[in-house]
Amino acid sequence: MKFDIKEEDLIIKPYKTEGPIYVRSQKGKYQKLRRYIGWALMLAFILIPFIPYQGQQAILLDIGAQQFRFFNTTLFPQDFTLLAWIFMAGAFALFFVTTWLGRVWCGYTCPQTVWMMMFIWVEEKVEGNRNKRIKLDKSPMSFEKFRKKGLKHLAWLSISFLTATTFLSYFVPVKELYSNLVTLDWSGLIWFWVGLFAVCTYGNAGFLREKMCIYMCPYSRFQAVMFDKDTYVVAYDEKRGESRGRRKRKDDPKQLGLGDCVDCNLCVEVCPAGIDIRNGMQYECINCGACIDACDETMDKFNYQKGLISYTSEHQLAGQKTNKFRLKLVGYGFFTGLVIVTMLIWMNLRVPIETSILRDRNALYRVNYEGLTENTYTLRITNKTQNTLNYTLTLLEDSRFVLSAPQNIVIPAGEMSQFPVTITADGYDLKQKVTDVRFKVQAIEQPDIQIIKQSKFYKP
């Protein structure tokens, strides 16, 4: 038996080959909600670095100084336990939302979707609606086509540059960043990162678009693991819609043997991923609800009941009730809350001071001219607050030990200071060769900021 296999059939095609997706503009309650959320997120992204707090930038991730400021809290690399808690809370929250409402994160709040839809909006304003854009791309190059394409890409590049600059303002003080931009006094490093982020934004939102969601985002691949028959997803009611077919508004679909789907294809044209929701649930779907708004608009025109495409569950489509309090959903919600509460408790118990006691490595002890035993230490104190503080150092031991240290230790905000400390004792008063000693460091202005560190005292 021979098989007629062509050479082109053996070529693996990793990407779709049907060309670019021309997204049709769509109005409706879900698209209005998506736009409101998108504008709110973009405004927050732009304005947050400009929020002042006590004369400083409220949120600043200063990598050079290894300090991460969030209003009145300054975090240092040793506080990165908080980052683990944030990632855990975000992961459980994502699992919870996905199990409950499917990929609404992708459709409404993902930065890739927000910027992609913004670039599509610019494209529509410059080049026209979907049909005009298709016609423009098929037409030969002319001055008008060059003008529109040039204006579109100029707008895209401007948005990308603003996005990159805004992103960098979370890591560089915003006043310094923008004042140096006006005077063209950016360093080479700043220009590199702004250029890199601008190119990434321009490429992702302008060209890759849905390919980022379909081929590069891992979330689209493992999301189905969190779905169940009670998860709300965008779905097409096949029983009600089939058989689909075109008809006039006054036609009776029952007499024609047709379902409610008029096969207008608008659900495909408005989809930013270019899929046909009528083919069933697909991992490319980002749950943006554009096809729902388009279908409801068509149902209105034909005086049919809305909801042919809707946010629904598999159980609901089968005529059963959706279980809103199933064990998996409750479990994800519980662990999300537990991690958030644990993180808040950790932050509340966190003391904004870091102290280390290092013994003299050259000698365990020495005996002075009075016959007393001395141990030398190096004390390091890091002020993790945003104010200059005065600290005192004391020993939590009896009178057998005498501490020699500065009486008042002044440390500026976010800085570390180190200095030598000596403890003296009469060896005859100590029964053991090694005795535990405890140092207490306390802020004078804020007595609740204190820390106790333990070390060892050695005698001959």
From TrEMBL:
Keywords: 4Fe-4S, Electron transport, Iron, Iron-sulfur, Membrane, Metal-binding, Transmembrane, Transmembrane helix, Transport. The chain crosses the membrane at residues 36-53, 82-102, 154-174, 186-208, 329-349. The keyword Iron applies. InterPro entries: 4Fe4S_Fe-S-bd (IPR017896), 4Fe4S_Fe_S_CS (IPR017900), Cyt_c_oxidase_cbb3_FixG (IPR014116), Electron_Trans/Redox (IPR051684), FixG_C (IPR032879), Ig-like_fold (IPR013783). Pfam families: Fer4_18, Fer4_5, FixG_C. Gene3D superfamilies: Immunoglobulins. Residues 252-280 form the 4Fe-4S ferredoxin-type domain. It comes from the Bacteria. The keyword Disulfide bond does not apply. SUPFAM superfamilies: 4Fe-4S ferredoxins (SSF54862). This is Cytochrome c oxidase accessory protein CcoG.
